[in-house]
Amino acid sequence: MSDPRVYFVNDTTTSSNWGCRGTTRALRSLVESTGATIGDTAYLDDLHHSDRLLTRVPGVTDWMARVAGDVTDARRRTLGALRLTTGGDRREAWKRYESLTSRWDAVPLTVDEYDGAAERVVDGELFAAQRDAIEACDAVVINGEGSVYDRRRKGRVLLFLAYVAAEHLDTPTALVNHTADVSDPVVREAVATVYPLLDDVVFREPRSAEACEAFLPGAVGDHLGADAAFRRRPIEDRDAWASVAEREEYYGVWPDSAAGFDPREPYVCVGGSSIFDRPDRPQYDPEPAYASLCRRLERRVAPVVLTASCPTDARLFRPIADELGLPLIGPRTPVTQAIDVLGNADAYVGGRWHPGIYAATGGTPVVTLTANTYKTAGLVDHLELDAPTFDALALHRHVSEIASLVEEYVDRGEPLRRRLRERADELAELATRNVEALPGEADDRL
């Protein structure tokens, strides 16, 4: 097949998240570097809402979208009521919520529902635009990112579309660039059903590859790649960057302020964690612990720069920035500028997958916190750092340990930074594994 047309599924460049925007652009570039053409695109926004996937039914479709949406007032009220029925068990309440809302959703919850829903797709009753795009292209490349865990809708829709494309529309399909946490039995059954049907499955870190070994042929390493974001790089000439970045409020992207950020001086970046987005985890207010951590780092290591890669982190960090007078690099900052900040820092602390990658590409040592899956621990594995991943939901207990590890990394200086840059280069090459299913050869230049 020469110059195949690819249907690129789950484009997250419209997300208010540095990681989503950066990795999608890198993966699209990888696809195109093989000589393939991206003939059509399914954006996350379009996949995320029922009303964009169903044949429109006035009134009913709108109601379904409100109930099935990922973050809505209706969801919060419903979860609150369900927690009363579970004695306050947040995980059980979330599972009941997902089972309830899936009844009115275009995306099937269990494998038993796949064939019936797939027939409706083929007939044009559901996912009509997605069906037409699959049929108009030669291959489907699904950008999995961190979607496949628990019963989250964004993961279920990707698995179901992969199933439809491969099993019912007979189109070569690859699910790549992703983490998969299959501890939930519903997700595990879906993965066990879908993965063997696909032409390729590529994980972005080793823990997912090991967790899914039973569902795929060959050894774990056969399906291990790296996140396309490893192909991004900060500016190499720090003096040249600093001469631009030091201008007043250069990084003060409204409504946040980077006043006081001196890029010529040592600094440590601190980021949030995706675990705080999970409604099925114990309630925890991390703000006091983060404030304590920032104070400790400033006393023992270097000034702190708060990095909010998404709106959730910005809401958490704005009060801390105001209280402590810290610069805050906000989510509206262009990704390339954010990578420069992270890649030139003396260290990065956080439970965000992609900011950790962006930091490592410049040689910045990474101290990880737990995230919404085991992905940050997987990042430590990938970077070959012999270090723990600290519990973000008990951050107050680990402030001293984190500060000590940051101090140790900074003291190790250029030898550690050089090793991390070299490892990031290796992982950038490994990221080409994401497009091996396409007939062309990916450009391995960084």
UniProtKB/TrEMBL annotation:
Coiled coil: none annotated. This is Polysaccharide pyruvyl transferase domain-containing protein. InterPro entries: Polysacch_pyruvyl_Trfase. Transmembrane segments: none annotated. It comes from Halorubrum kocurii JCM 14978. Residues 104-369 form the Polysaccharide pyruvyl transferase domain.
